[in-house]
Amino acid sequence: MDPMEAALPAAHRAERNSFVDEVVAVTGWDRGRTHAVDWAAVEARIGTALPADYKELAEVFGHGAFDGYLELHTPGAAFRSGDIVLHAAWLGEWARTHGSRLWEPYGIHPAPGGLLQWGSSEQAHQFYWLTDGPDPDRWPVLVCEDAPDSWERFDGTTAEFVHRLLTEPEHPFSIACYFDSHWFEGYGTP
After folding, report:
1. SS3 for 70?
2. Cα dihedral 110/70/73/49 (nearest 10)
3. Chain Cα centroid distance, residue 35
4. Per residue in 97-118, is it b (16+ CB within 10 Å) or e — as a string?
5. Which residues of the chain have pLDDT under 50?
6. Who's near 62: CB < 8 A, 6+ residues apart?
7. pLDDT value of residue 98
8. pLDDT in tens, 142-178
């Protein structure tokens, strides 16, 4: 949350749209199209609770990409690499059998405080949460370009990260300057 917003009384902040609502508005997405997810089962399989706004993004949008760039990984995705549950299990197994040098200085979930991937880009960026701490709604977003030691940290929520990526030219991974309007393309989820 930015300092100006933090200074506002709680009642005023509550009147403001959520970042999920802002992403819906900027993409023109139909909020009535929802994807039912058994979050208790998903979180049991992954081995941790997940951020609330991510779960809302997954229910509202499903598996797909924002502006053809940022792919949102969701449970039950049309293919394995986009399914957050299957991909988390695959990455965890890879790290267990091959080590986690590729993600240094971090470990991979289910290691305590490990990285849990929630998205990727067409340009080989990988979007993770740093699962450090008991409250998933406070996990920072970490982004890695396809190069070692290229970690960027964003101390905000998943939906805030997506919204700022779409709308703010100053955001480190902004695509705001490339498009006059923004969209979401679903990848074969109902």
Report:
1. strand
2. 50
3. 16
4. eeebeebeebbbbbeeebbbbb
5. 1-15, 189-190
6. 33, 35, 74, 186, 187, 189, 190
7. 92
8. 999 866 668 999 999 999 999 999 999 998 888 998 8
